[in-house]
Specification:
35% helix; alpha/beta; 5-stranded mixed beta sheet; Transcription Regulator spoIIAA; 120 residues
């Protein structure tokens, strides 16, 4: 995604919703470096049973730093090692482009919506 001054971005907001054995993490605003620890803590806490599927809702994410993206990769690895499904849902066009350029589309299961991710 394009570089933006952090002053133009709204702070990262992380909302967690649980449905049975699935956790949906909705990210809103900008996932800049200053929010990486908060993001890592949230994702890693959810990467354990009883959660069987973790869905990252990126529909309202406007920016993610390389460190933030690395945090999502680390959460994916942690989930995979624990047998937990991991899906990205609804990334905007710019984020989808960045995932393609970095070839992370080969790693992640990317769904058009949270509902689609929940069905997988």
């Amino acid at each position: 995604m394009s570089r933006r001054p952090t002053s133009e971005l709204s702070p990262l907001k992380i909302d967690v919703h649980r449905q049975a054995e699935c956790a949906v993490v909705a990210l809103t605003g900008g996932a800049t470096m200053e929010y990486t620890d908060q993001l890592r803590k949230t994702l890693f806490e959810l990467a354990d049973p009883p959660v069987r599927k973790l869905v990252i809702d990126m529909g309202r994410l406007k920016f993610i730093s390389s460190v933030g993206l690395g945090t999502i990769v680390a959460a994916y690895v942690r989930c995979t090692r624990r047998g937990i499904g991991f899906h990205l849902a609804g990334p905007r066009a710019k984020l989808q482009e960045m995932l393609a350029i970095t070839q992370l589309t080969r790693l992640f299961d990317i769904c058009g919506s949270v509902e689609e991710a929940m069905r997988r």
